[in-house]
Amino acid sequence: MTDASFTWDVPPGFNFARDVVDRLAAEDRLGLLFVDAAGKRHEYRFAQIAEASKRWAAVLRDAGVGKGDRVVVVLPKIPDWLFCMTAMLRIGAVAVPSAEQLRAKDLLYRANHSGAVAVVAYAGNAAEFEAMRADATTVRTYLLVGAERPGWTSTDPLLERAQPWDGEPTQAADMAYVVYTSGTTKDPKGVVHSVAFTYGKRVQAAIWFDVKPRDLVWCTAGTGWAKSLWNVLLGPWSCGAPIVLHEGAFVPEERMDMIRDLGVTVLCQAPTEYRLLAKLPDLGGRWKLPHLRHCVSAGEPLNPEVIELWKAAFGLTILDGYGQTENTLLVANRPGTDVRPGSMGKPTPGHDVAVVDEQGRVCEPGEIGDIALRGDPPSLFRGYYGNDEETRSSRRGEWYITGDRAQVDDDGYFWFVGRADDVISSGAYRIGPFEVESALLGHPAVMESAVVGSPDADRGNIVKAFVVLRPGYEPSDALARELQEHCKRVTAPYKYPRAIEFLAELPKTRSGKIRRVELRQAELRKKGATAASGFV
């Protein structure tokens, strides 16, 4: 099929659990290769996955979760995360996937803002939920996976006794997810995706991942992030391919060993992971990867040097793809097309993407403007939950405005320029300065703070904080470390500022607003680098 002839054709009664997982269960095929924290392998056939999903559906139903109810899910990279998330699609409940690193304040905001009726968690983050429990006004049920704890309902015995349940009918327009994304000066926004979106992810898996049923696909993203839903759960299974799920942390040598030993054929990693792997000595000589045939990078732009190193080692070109929590793969370097190093590539099927000016007019080649998507395809979010004003402001006439800026060349290739806002892309994470600044202001030594991204060879950017101290406090390395530890305690640890600079005052506009752009540009001049974007 050509891009011009592409149509979405979303079935009106589509349900990912029944129409994808249950149909695959009719075949005796591998669906999941799980490697636990100890390195032990566990194989799950699609039939086992379908039954586990149906048991989870029954447990959620009996716990009072119904169609349309929101549920905050915070689980590590274990099979129960897949089973639970698939079960929620099966019954028409709305998942609020959240990262393991989130603290009580973050979790409370997501629970109250979404009106969640239940929480699914595990022992490692139960204490954070307990710290916010008294203030979570709508949450009635707290489900704990893999352990027993006072005040929680353990799911393990319930799953053993549960009678598998097929679930409820769903429609394409039904809500499926509320995924929270970082903001710059406001609280995180809840991105609403519909059931139709879960159907649309097969397009990304097919045209960018190039997934075939015979593949073994490994997307290394952690649970709780949009990438894990799009690229771990929905995409590969939509194309009939098994996936890898690894519970352990990223260790470069171990990662290379696993890619080789598991026989991974399609690999999706964050740029930070590719960068660290590329630093391993004798990469291509030490590791032979005869099964690996396709690699993509998700999270932010990948350095051309890393792409060349990887290609020299394994003969494979890593393909970048661009998208957001609010949408899917909008622009990409695709298999079988000419890749121009440093380019974002071209728009993907079903997406009318252009660079537009402030009036919503398509820019001429070479002119810098806003990356925008025309119309309302099923791959685009339905709006920001409970925030009509933000939803409206994301539109410019017929265009959805992504917040990223780019230019297009004479041949239709997109070239990224920078963020239109202040969100920081660091490793695989997107971090809102407001959240880190708020954490810093909670320390008695801090009078003012401003947070920006500072270019970094491995992470793309690191979080850097500029701090003005209160009278009676003096700048020191010890105080900088104390502020870092403070941030780790009150917000997700990945958000903490890896660099802190003390200033007498912050640059501001005449109206008193902090000029983060001035600080960011100063960092760019120091590092001689360019800004990174929010890639898929």
Describe this structure in words.
The chain is an alpha/beta fold. The chain has a domain at 431-527: ANL, C-terminal domain (GMP Synthetase, Chain A, domain 3). 31% of the residues lie in helices and 24% in strands. The chain has a 6-stranded mixed beta sheet with strand order 10-12-13-14-15-16. It has a 5-stranded parallel beta sheet with strand order 4-3-5-6-7, with helices on both faces. Strand 25 (446-456) and strand 26 (460-469) form a beta hairpin. Helix 7 crosses helix 8. The radius of gyration is 23 Å and the shape is globular. The two termini are 24 Å apart. The model is unreliable at 529-536 (pLDDT under 50).
Notable characteristics:
six-stranded mixed beta sheet; alpha/beta; globular; 536 residues; single chain
Spell out the blueprint of helices and strands.
Blueprint: H1 16-25, E1 30-35, E2 41-45, H2 46-62, E3 70-73, H3 79-91, E4 94-97, H4 104-114, E5 118-122, H5 126-132, E6 141-145, E7 153-154, H6 155-161, E8 175-181, E9 189-194, H7 195-207, E10 217-219, H8 226-238, E11 243-246, H9 252-262, E12 266-269, H10 271-278, H11 283-286, E13 294-297, H12 304-314, E14 319-322, E15 331-332, E16 346-347, E17 353-356, E18 369-374, E19 383-384, H13 388-393, E20 395-396, E21 399-408, E22 414-419, E23 424-426, E24 429-431, H14 433-441, E25 446-456, E26 460-469, H15 477-490, E27 499-502, H16 516-527
Parallel strand pairs: 1-11, 3-4, 3-5, 5-6, 6-7, 10-12, 12-13, 13-14, 26-27
Antiparallel strand pairs: 1-2, 8-9, 9-19, 14-15, 15-16, 17-18, 18-21, 20-21, 21-22, 23-24, 25-26
Helix pairs in contact: 1-2, 2-3, 2-6, 4-5, 7-8
